[in-house]
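Retro notes (design track)

What went well: tokenization of the new backbones is finally stable.
What didn't: we kept losing track of which sequence belonged to which structure.
Fix going forward: every design gets posted as structure first, then sequence, in one message. First example under the new rule, 333 residues:
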């Protein structure tokens, strides 16, 4: 058996200076953050108040509070008796003019033949042409009037966006409504909006989460993805904050206004506090010290201990210390 003497190798490793391992013993200071939880309440993505375009008696209503509007189905219709009578009268006038038009077309053709035979005067032909043109003009006017009546009849039925839900109903069948009176309040609950008022630091923290933003719904004991929908550019003189709206989507059976929502944001602490692993901190005579990568020692103020991902971290502050600075671990621990 061959015996190898490792003593010189071990002795040489022991004599290597500690700086040879410095790169493996450095830690980087992180920004010190505090978690803020903001609360808001859901509301419909959009709201619309529909009003009556014409005065009249309500003949039918097809939806009640909470109902979903069906595709192509009107919410309410007004009585159409009189407008139907106007349409029939218009049609009768056009039929009568069509008879006159056919007669004067024959008259024009007859007078042209007679004029060629010198059996009639030019004035008689001109009078027949004038009557025919007048009838054509009256037919055009009646056709336009019929189109107006049809459009008015169409608007007697109040259409609503498909899929929206009835928030409040203002009318009942048989009730008289005047022009401009509200008929129904509708909300779009395909997605929900949650308004918040944020400070600039909170808004920057929110922007950093864009694409990974999640909100908590305590009442439903669940979390949901969210996206920034609107950011107001205006200055709110009362709150002095930035008004924003976040958009979330829920199952249609759960989507409603008034659900409490929590937004958690990690905000940098005011001041120069940083986070550092507790193992980098050295305590001497009730004072705390950190050692930079170049060996410089700095006295710091200990602000408290937090729980990190895999080890204990502490908040400290000191002159010249900022996030990104590197420090040596305390080799005495």
């Amino acid at each position: 058996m061959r015996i190898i003497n490792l003593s010189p190798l071990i002795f040489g490793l022991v004599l290597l200076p500690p700086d040879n391992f410095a790169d493996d013993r450095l830690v980087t200071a992180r920004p010190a953050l505090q978690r803020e939880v903001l609360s808001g309440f859901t509301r419909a993505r959009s709201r619309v108040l529909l009003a009556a375009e014409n005065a009249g008696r309500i003949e039918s209503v097809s939806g009640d509070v909470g109902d979903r509007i069906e595709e192509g189905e009107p919410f309410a219709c007004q009585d159409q008796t009189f407008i139907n009578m106007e349409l029939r009268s218009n049609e009768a006038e056009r039929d009568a003019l069509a008879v006159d038009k056919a007669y004067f077309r024959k008259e024009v053709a007859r007078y042209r033949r007679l004029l060629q035979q010198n059996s009639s005067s030019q004035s008689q032909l001109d009078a027949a042409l004038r009557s025919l043109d007048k009838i054509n003009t009256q037919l055009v006017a009646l056709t336009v009037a019929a189109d107006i009546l049809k459009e008015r009849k169409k608007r007697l039925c109040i259409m609503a966006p498909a899929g929206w839900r009835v928030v409040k109903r203002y009318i009942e069948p048989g009730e008289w409504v005047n022009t401009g009176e509200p008929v129904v309040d509708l909300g779009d609950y395909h997605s929900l909006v949650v308004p918040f008022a944020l400070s600039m630091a909170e808004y920057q923290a929110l922007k950093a989460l864009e694409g990974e933003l999640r909100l908590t719904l305590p009442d439903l004991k669940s979390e949901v993805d969210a996206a920034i929908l609107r950011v107001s550019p205006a200055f709110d003189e009362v709150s002095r904050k930035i008004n924003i709206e976040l958009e979330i989507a829920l199952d249609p059976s759960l989507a409603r206004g008034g659900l409490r929502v929590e937004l958690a944001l990690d905000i940098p602490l005011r001041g120069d506090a940083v986070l550092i692993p507790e193992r980098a901190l050295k305590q001497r005579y009730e004072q705390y010290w950190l050692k930079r990568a170049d060996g410089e020692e700095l006295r710091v103020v200990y602000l408290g201990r937090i729980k990190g991902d895999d080890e204990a971290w502490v908040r400290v502050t000191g002159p010249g210390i900022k996030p990104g600075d590197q420090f040596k671990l305390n080799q005495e621990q």
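Added context from the reviewer: The longest helix spans residues 81-116.
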